[in-house]
Design brief:
Length: about 160
Amino acid sequence: MSPLLFCSKIQEDIEEENQKATVLSQKTKLNENVCIRCCRSFGIIFNRKQTCQLCKLYICKSCCLYDRENKGYICHTCAEARELKMKSCEWFYDNVSKKFKRFGSAKVVRTLYKQKRKDSARRYHTDNESDSGYDPSLLSSKQYGSLQSLDRLHQQVEGHDRDTE
C-alpha cells in the first residue's frame, strides 16, 4: 500500500471515530457512564474513567495512553491524529501559513527584485496581505523573465504602496 493511500485511510478512520464520538457525546450523560471509544462502562476501582487531554472526552484505560508532554492521558484516536499530522508534515504548513501571510511565486519575484534594487531609496519590509505585489498581466506577458517586466512590477508595487498609505 502506498504511503499516500495509507495516510488517507488513517485520516478516514480518524474522522469516522470523531463523528461517532460527537454523536455519542451529544446523548445526555452517556459519556459520564461509558467510554466514548469502546462503550464499556466505567467502574470505581477497575476500568476507571480518564479525560483525554486533547478532545476532553471520557475514555477508559484500554482506549488511552499516557502522554508525557501533556502530563495526562490521550485517547488512541487523538494519538493517531497527532501522528498523522507529524507524518504528513501538516504541522509545518500550518506554521508557515501562520508566520507568512503572503507567500508563493509573487513573494519570490518581489524578493528577487528587492535584492536587485537594494540601493533604492524605498525599502519594502512589510509582510501584510494587502501588499501582494501580484500582477496577472505579468504571467501572460511574453517578457515575463525580462528586466522590463520586473520594472513594471516595481512600478505597480510602488503605486499600490502609495495608494495604501
